[in-house]
Amino acid sequence: MQKTFTMISVAALIALGQFAGASAAWTGSIRVLQVDPWDNARYLIGVKSSAEALRIIDSGQFDINLENEEGYTLLHFAAEAGDLELVKAMLARGANPNAKNNSVGYTPYQMAYSTSVKAELRQAMSAAQAPTREAGGAASPKGASKAAPVKSNGMCEMARNDPASSSRSPALRPFLAAKDAIWYNKPDELTGLLEDCVGVNQQDEYGWSLLHQAAQRDRVELAKILLNKGASKALRNKDGQTPGQLATSPEMKALLGGSVATAKPATSRDIECQQKYRADAALCSDSTCRMRSMRKWQQCLKTGNYW
């Protein structure tokens, strides 16, 4: 009976070790479970136990930039958890904000949902990046030294390499990502793209600038960001409209000037495109799919073709 009980106990311990993802080492005839400290820290990050996670990180049992088999670091998980203080603490300890996972090359920034976490990571990315371009566009006077190089914050590179943008021209992806940031009301992403490579007065094939987009979507805070970066209120799209003429609220009108645009009655195309979008988006299980559906909707409004 005692032997049977011992076998059952050992089997239970083995099962527990497999369930917890623990490694084990034999000591004599007793199986001693040793929980992997990296996995333990990851678990604590997920349940918002930041202090306990930091104690394990500070124990020196593993490098702070250690990756799992999928290429994720603990900073990826802290960013995903939206824990700003933990993200700050990990960055201060040398966590790499530019680390990329194996499957799609996502950085911690791309795992984050919190605007404040994104802002913190973007600043860290900018500080960590090597200089990649030169400031200013005007030619230097003869004999003058070159303009000081400006560090990239990595935002445009992320936009170019984003799998969700695979159907877009690589050269246009940063600008289109800025338009997406306005559509989905993501101020930090817009700021980061403008500070990296996107021209604040760049226009699409219909003559719409980012300020036109913000005015039409009534993104007042994003319009303020654009204006602070030098966006022009006087640019006209191919229909001759300025951003102010697309204003849909008194607040946007006050910011941009011009009369508030009168909403046009929905056409049969508008209604059909919206119905297709809603049906398509209802089948989506993640934000990448929903963004793809949104782009199809915008295409449908312009061309009449959703698919």
Which keywords apply here?
307 residues, mainly alpha, Serine Threonine Protein Phosphatase 5, Tetratricopeptide repeat, two-stranded antiparallel sheet, elongated, disordered N terminus
CATH fold topology of the largest domain: Serine Threonine Protein Phosphatase 5, Tetratricopeptide repeat
Low-confidence stretches: 1-33, 130-149
Helix-strand topology string: HEEHHHHHHEEHHHHHHHH
Query: Looking at this structure, what is the CATH superfamily of the largest domain?
Result: Ankyrin repeat-containing domain
Mean pLDDT: 79
Which sheet architecture does the biggest sheet show? 2 strands, antiparallel
Proportion of residues in extended strands? 5-15%
How is this fold's topology laid out?
Blueprint: H1 2-20, E1 23-27, E2 30-34, H2 37-46, H3 50-58, H4 74-81, H5 84-92, H6 108-111, H7 115-128, E3 131-134, E4 149-151, H8 155-161, H9 173-183, H10 187-196, H11 210-217, H12 220-228, H13 250-256, H14 268-281, H15 287-303
Helix pairs in contact: 2-3, 2-4, 5-7, 7-10, 9-10, 9-11, 10-12, 11-12, 14-15
Structural write-up:
The strands form two sheets. A two-stranded antiparallel sheet has the order 1-2. The longest helix has 19 residues, at about 1-20. Helix content is about 50%, strand content about 5%. The chain is mainly alpha-helical. The protein is built from 15 helices and four strands.
Give the structure's gist in a few sentences.
This protein has 307 residues and is mainly alpha-helical. The protein has helices at residues 2-20, 37-46, 50-58, 74-81, 84-92, 108-111, 115-128, 155-161, 173-183, 187-196, 210-217, 220-228, 250-256, 268-281, 287-303, and strands spanning 23-27, 30-34, 131-134, 149-151.
